[in-house]
Amino acid sequence: MVLDASVAVVGAGAAGLSLARWLARGAPGRGPAVVLLDAPPGPLRPPPRTWCFWEADGGEFDAALTASWTRLRVTAPDGRPIVRTCLPLRYKMLRSADFERTVLADAAVVAGVRRLTADVARVDDRAGGALVHGTAADGSPLLVGARWVFDSRPPAARPPRRTELLQHFRGWFVRSDADRFDPRVVDLMDFRLPQPRRGLAFGYVLPISRREALVEYTQFSSDVLTTEAYDRALNHYIRDVLGLGGLRITGTETGVIPMTDAPLHRQTGRSVFRIGTAGGATRASTGYTFSAAGRQARAVAAACRAGRRPVPPACYPARARAMDAVLLHALATGRVDGAALLSRLFEHIPTERLLRFMDGRTRLHEDISVGVRTPVAAMLRTTAALLAAPRRPPGDRTPRTTGAPA
Q: What is the C-alpha separation between 20 and 34, in angstroms, rounded?
């Protein structure tokens, strides 16, 4: 099969679907013809997942949300609860299946996007555009020629970095026969758990109703765990820390998010670009991606419609990326106690400002107000060490697996 389009989008996760949607939303008859290439079911296709983000009421996906909250709770390692309101923002929970249904029901997407299942092997520049080589769902060769190609797949080789941690987690969707959860407040980080020597660990509770919730165990560390180790950690958190029993598991969710100071190149050819996590949409210090991927998609679509070269913009300013690099190195070297640091920030920084900081949308004086609440001496030592540290190529591309949450 040979197809031609104005734009080809490789990958139909949050970044790919967002971009296809914004491209199709051009003026009637003027939006670019888009081919959206989705990986076949299997290891190349992202599994169903839950995205959480913060924004004001009236967001474009509000009707598809599973739940939302205006109160956040962070529990310090000593058990002290820090409960804050995040108004005028809301913390929102959106499941990927609901997001996909909403996007694909958009009339502009129905009219302007052709979605294909294909295993993409490579993308090559060619005169006046690029060519996507792949295999269609029926096993036949597939070629898609386009003026611009946007690729959301992870790069085949990760660039050299000074620091890299993994944010890895496993969650259980649980249901109880009695009222056990408070749907008015989300447990954003609960640090009453054994902490790794380098990195941090926390529990995370998203109450959907009084009887349903998503409960997760999350680590920032160098190695992922075995499924059995995650489940032991979840059992410990639910039974021993939260004091809950009699819960039925109705679903599970797992994920690994790279947190790195490696420079991510958003252009890989004259007409080929990376988007989403591959294009720098993941905040290196938090793992949040969804909102930044949407902002990036809107900017790319606007450039395409205006006839400009649609290089995806950096999702976070250089100042935010530099602060991320220092924090990652401090956690990875054990120079700071991550649980104590984050608890302190939520206790002393206005929540709305801290959330904007975590989204890379604060001004210099606001960044300074956050920085002075960190262990300044340790951060300065980390900065000096980081400046002297070389960027090293990654080793084994597959994260190692360990058997205990430690």
A: 7
104 within some domain: yes
- Round to whole Å and give the CA distance between 74 and 203: 10
The closest alpha carbon to 271, from 2, 3, 1, 6, belongs to 6
* Structural domain includes residue 152: yes
Cα distance between residue 165 and residue 253, in whole Å:
20
Q: How far apart are the first and last CA of the chain?
A: 52
Exposed / middle / buried, residue 388 (Cβ in 10 Å: 0-12, 13-18, 19+)? exposed
Q: Is residue 19 part of a domain?
A: yes
Alpha carbon of 158 to those of 39, 44, 154, 256, 306: distances in Å? Answer: 21, 17, 8, 15, 32
- Provide φ and ψ at 82, rounded to 5°: -120, 105
At 269-328, the pLDDT tens digits run: 999 999 999 999 999 999 999 999 999 999 999 999 999 999 999 999 999 999 999 999
Token pair for 44: 């190349």
**CATH no. for residue 271?**
3.50.50.60
Domain count within the chain = 1
Q: Is the pTM of this model over 0.85?
A: yes
- How far is the C-alpha of 372 from the C-alpha of 374, rounded, in Å? 5
**In this structure, are residues 14 and 275 in contact, taking their beta carbons and an 8 Å threshold?**
no
Distance CA 301, CA 23 (A): 5
**Residue 7 structural domain:** 2-48+96-157+263-306
Residue 20 in any domain: the answer is yes
pLDDT digit string, tens, across residues 238-249: 999 999 989 999
